[in-house]
Amino acid sequence: MSSSAIQLSSAAASSSFLSPSTFTTREPSASLRRRSPGICLCVASPPSEKTAYKTKVARNENMAKLQAGYLFPEIARRRSAHLLKYPDAQVLSLGIGDTTEPIPDVITSAMAKRAYALSMVEGYSGYGAEQGDKNLRAAIASTYYRDLGIEETDIFVSDGAKCDISRLQVLFGSNAKIAVQDPSYPAYVDSSVIMGQTGLYQKDIQKYGNIEYMRCTPDNGFFPDLSSISQTDVIFFCSPNNPTGSVASRDQLTRLVQFAKDNGSIIVYDSAYAMYISDDSPQSIFEIPGAKEVAIETSSFSKYAGFTGVRLGWTVVPKELLFSDGFPVAKDFNRIVCTCFNGASNIAQAGGLACLSPEGLKAMGDVVKFYKENAEIIVDTFTSLGFDVYGGRNAPYVWVHFPGRSSWDVFAEILEKAHMVTTPGSGFGPGGEGFVRVSAFGHRENVLEAAKRLKQLYK
Ligand SMILES: Cc1ncc(COP(=O)(O)O)c(C=O)c1O
């Protein structure tokens, strides 16, 4: 199974609270029941010695560097093992950051209309522009980058931010060195490993060689001490942050842009949660003067409109951004997009245009508000229990501190005793040790039930 298939199945597994699915069924299938509890075959495990035939193709040595499976498949494995042990448990998932609420119908009706039009000669269209529909690019530029000097032609519409992160890594190539926030969204590190940019994984420090890990903790306000960070080609920076839920201030981002300029680095700014910001923190890196010369921004409709399954995002590559030889980065990215991608689905793009209509923006705002209310319930619950809690105010993630404890142990404790799935902080990098991430994506009744169970567990 490909890694994307693995992720898809794990996402599906945890996308619906209490509802049956391949992994989460309350009544496990006969085949699940037959396996002994705890023996959960990892989909990424090497094949058994009994495999009859082997090709002569050597395994990509960079793939072999990756640590045993991506974080979420591991969580899904533990969840299914838990269900084997407690077949009647109503497992609540506050783990993977997948959305749960339906897509507003002002958006689905536009997609339905576009889909239907495809069945008529006048409405049919095939391949579109690889960079995306002109009207959608213009709408993204005017909605999210008004007055920031970003133009329609700087926008590349895509099938999601995660896919763009990998395409950006192809753009930078295997000689690039990256920096990441520690903890951070795992796709930056894993795509770097796959590209061959890193050394081996060093178990003792839980880091890959040749990646600069920028520690982000409560002590530094979740913003790295830039004076201790060495120069890299690329700096991945995510705000509001997954997993810590922290948001970078204007002053911090100004320092980041200056740092990139001083070092000649390119920032890849991930703003997939920008609409969750309710204070005056920047929603785009391009709000910072000079950022167009040092930054790319990637973003997504996934967490605003419930498009995790529909798949639609975008990446902004300003024409002012140049490589060391003066060649425009956007021209090379355009070449990558035209080679590795054939444009986002025309149906999804019709949905994207509807998202950016006045009604669509209002509907997305309501979706975001709903998840933020969930986050507030989770923050209040942990705070009332005496925990130090971060995030949740400008982000759909709550970052809870369990000082001195292993985050996988806390994950196991909450699963065992409250039948609740969270995400162990160490899965996002060594800086996440001692924390768990609690996601605010969920139906309200399940978030309230989770609050009740947590109060019982930690009273
Ligand atoms: C920080 C961050 N970036 C990107 C993504 C992926 O977004 P998309 O669904 O657009 O691929 C996620 C998804 O969880 C995320 O948390």
TrEMBL record:
Family, per entry: Belongs to the class-I pyridoxal-phosphate-dependent aminotransferase family. LL-diaminopimelate aminotransferase subfamily.
Biological process according to GO: systemic acquired resistance, salicylic acid mediated signaling pathway
Keyword Transport: no
Lineage, top ranks: Eukaryota, Viridiplantae, Streptophyta, Embryophyta, Tracheophyta
Stretch forming the signal peptide: none
Cofactor: pyridoxal 5'-phosphate
CDD domains linked: AAT_like
Record organism: Ananas comosus
SUPFAM superfamilies: PLP-dependent transferases (SSF53383)
Record GO terms (molecular function): pyridoxal phosphate binding; transaminase activity
Sorted UniProt keywords: Aminotransferase, Pyridoxal phosphate, Transferase
Ranges of residues in domain Aminotransferase class I/classII large: 90-454
Name of the protein described by the UniProt record: Probable LL-diaminopimelate aminotransferase, chloroplastic
Superkingdom of source: Eukaryota
